[in-house]
Design brief:
By secondary structure, the protein is of the alpha/beta class. 38% of the residues lie in helices and 18% in strands. The chain is built from 20 helices and 15 strands. The strands form four sheets. The protein has a seven-stranded mixed sheet with strand order 2-3-4-1-8-9-12, sandwiched between helices. β8, α13 and β9 form a beta-alpha-beta unit. It is globular, with a radius of gyration of 23 Å. The two termini are 24 Å apart.
Length: 481
């Protein structure tokens, strides 16, 4: 049975046919690896597949897809802002709900996670898992969650501890200044309450919750208050494992706690790799494999997306845009199998690029992307039954055969539907331009002003495979690009 036949079969099963399905994407990569551009493409790809988001309801904890463009685009240059390591909160999540039919909705949210979150490797992850275990064992009586509402429908879920005494401002405070400071740093209690009061929030109700319930709803909670409460109640939470708060601060476990928790709840994890980077992402992939291997129950699907495939393509490009990716990917994979320099009708691959890709793929199930694929492979009875039914070889067997792994994509944002290649601006690495006909074009400005259309090279194919689990690989009502 082919992948297309399988996804069509899944669309007829009850789980896929009704209700609301939740898709949570964790996109991980080093600075400049293409995370923001990949997300930029995938949002456009949803539209190309016929998905129209419903209006965001008041109190929704995440930002809209539209807000992502505002936050990610550099209005002065037309390029994408590079993702710095930041203080991660629910509003840094971006989400949308799509209506599929009268009975079914698809909820999607994604988080852009800097690769630096995984600096520290196994040591840092081990510390994170110990803290998570301690919090999950906390019974009611330590954590309290209070709901605050604003006149315009805003909602904040504030976490406090048993020893916390709120200090509300005695005089009306001025609105918080320094958004860039807030982006890089978490707030203290005074700043949290100043924000609430200055924006008209009123506390409506409060409830004691267990540690397990707290973590289950972490993407809805005010992260600043959660981290302050963990610090305030540290001894009560961690005494049975004698964890050292100063050590956790030094390793950045608390600063990155939200991002690491999202990786635990993600349905899909995408690792981004830039082809011109000096080294591949093998070490990052193996660290994420440790994170994925610890997930209880259903493990996330994992994908590897290489940025800068445009550097491998020969211009001018010709032929139908719809077939360009299939031709290019086939020729890239052929070049990887052959080794050394490779030139064809469409692709030119140097030996250095080939070595970079192979380093990220790995040379066996215990290395790099093969390692991550193996860690994410389901181990339950139903998966083993499907493997036997559809004759799918396990990841370990595929790796030992020496082929190329599945779920590997070559993406290139700077190509439009007219098959114009856009080049990196040496004065601004986040901006792409085209001047083939003497007219200077900025890629993101062309798209924003609707003077051209997206090709979503590689990103559309990645999104189709992710949606294939929901029987939606061709979009809503079978709509194709």
């Amino acid at each position: 049975m082919t992948k297309e036949e399988y996804t069509r079969l899944m669309s007829y099963l009850p789980f896929y046919g009704a209700g609301k399905n939740n898709l949570r994407l964790a996109v991980i990569g080093a600075r400049g690896s293409g995370k923001s551009y990949l997300l930029f493409d995938m949002i456009h790809a949803f539209g190309q597949l016929g998905f129209v988001p419903e209006p965001v309801k008041p109190g929704y904890p995440h930002s809209s897809f539209g807000a992502f463009f505002y936050d990610a685009l550099n209005g002065d240059t037309g390029g994408m802002k590079q993702t710095e390591r930041y203080a991660c909160r629910p509003r840094n999540h971006y989400g949308a709900t799509f209506r599929i039919n009268a009975l079914r909705r698809l909820h999607v949210d994604f988080l852009n996670i800097p690769g630096e979150v995984f600096d520290g490797g196994k040591k840092k992850l081990g510390m994170f898992f110990e803290l998570k275990k301690c919090i999950e064992h906390v019974e009611k009586g330590v954590f309290t969650v209070s709901e605050w509402r604003s006149p315009v429908g805003g909602r904040e879920m504030i976490v406090t501890g048993a020893s916390h005494k709120p200090a509300y401002p005695t005089t009306p405070p001025s609105p918080m200044q320094g958004n860039e400071d807030q982006r890089g740093n978490y707030l203290d209690w005074k700043e949290i309450y100043n924000n609430l009061v200055s924006n008209g929030f009123i506390e409506l109700k409060r409830k004691e919750v267990s540690g397990k319930a707290l973590l289950k709803h972490i993407t809805e909670l005010n992260t600043d208050s959660l981290l302050l409460t963990i610090r305030n109640e540290w001894n009560r939470i961690t005494s049975w494992l004698s964890l050292d708060l100063q050590e956790y601060e030094a390793w950045g476990v608390l600063h990155d706690f939200y991002s690491l928790m999202v990786c635990q709840t993600a349905t899909d994890i995408i690792i981004c790799d830039r082809l011109s980077a000096p080294t591949g992402v093998g070490e990052l992939l193996e660290t994420v494999a440790q994170q994925v291997g610890s997930v209880e129950g259903r493990t996330p699907s994992v994908y590897l997306a290489f940025r800068e495939a445009d550097k491998l393509l020969k211009a001018p490009l010709e032929g139908p845009a719809e077939t360009l990716y299939k031709r290019a990917e086939a020729e890239i994979r052929q070049g990887l199998r052959k080794g050394g320099e490779m030139q064809s009708s469409l692709v030119n691959m140097t030996d250095a690029v080939r070595r970079h890709i192979m380093q990220s793929i790995g040379d066996g199930v215990g290395h790099a992307f093969w390692h991550l694929l193996n860690a994410a492979e389901p181990r339950n009875y139903w998966w083993r039954l499907k493997q036997r039914l559809f004759n799918w070889p396990p990841i370990f067997e595929q790796a030992s055969q020496g082929g190329l792994p599945p779920y590997m994509y070559f993406t290139a944002t700077p190509i439009d539907k007219s098959l114009r290649l856009y080049h990196s601006d040496p004065s601004d690495v986040t901006r792409f331009y085209n001047s083939d006909d003497g007219q200077l074009r900025s890629f993101t400005k062309e798209l924003a002003c609707s003077r051209t259309e997206h090709l979503c090279f590689g990103s559309l194919q990645l999104l189709k495979d992710i949606l294939g689990r929901y029987g939606l690989s061709n979009g809503i009502n079978g709509k194709k690009e």
